[in-house]
Design goal:
This protein is of the alpha+beta class. It has one domain. Helices cover 42% and strands 14% of the residues. The chain has 3 helices and 4 strands. The protein has a 4-stranded mixed β-sheet, covered by helices on one side. Helix 1 runs antiparallel to helix 2. The radius of gyration is 13 Å and the shape is globular.
Length: 92
């Protein structure tokens, strides 16, 4: 699975990472729904850290489509609410 963090780059994650990534995504959705900026920052930060540490960076010279695009690290909770809705970025 190829995950792009907007403004940052792409990462290749193993299929085994999908379940944990989905759980992190669900936590971000919950924090958006609660409109709690601090909780959102913490849960979104964990999702970004997971992608960065579990994923292998895709070289800039490789042209690969992204399976998932994550908002940029500086996204606000208000902006994130538009993307992290329902089932989140990763449908169940």
């Amino acid at each position: 699975m190829i995950v792009r963090i907007a403004t940052e780059g792409q990462y290749e994650l193993s299929d085994e990472s999908r379940a944990e990534l989905g759980e992190l995504d669900n936590n971000v959705v919950a924090s958006c729904q609660s409109d709690d900026e601090e909780q959102f920052r913490a849960s979104f930060g964990r999702l970004l850290d997971f992608v960065r540490t579990e994923g292998r960076p895709v070289s800039d010279d490789q042209l690969v489509g992204s399976d998932l695009i994550v908002p940029p690290p500086d996204v606000s909770v208000q902006e994130a609410k538009e993307e992290f809705t329902g089932e989140g970025l990763i449908p169940g």
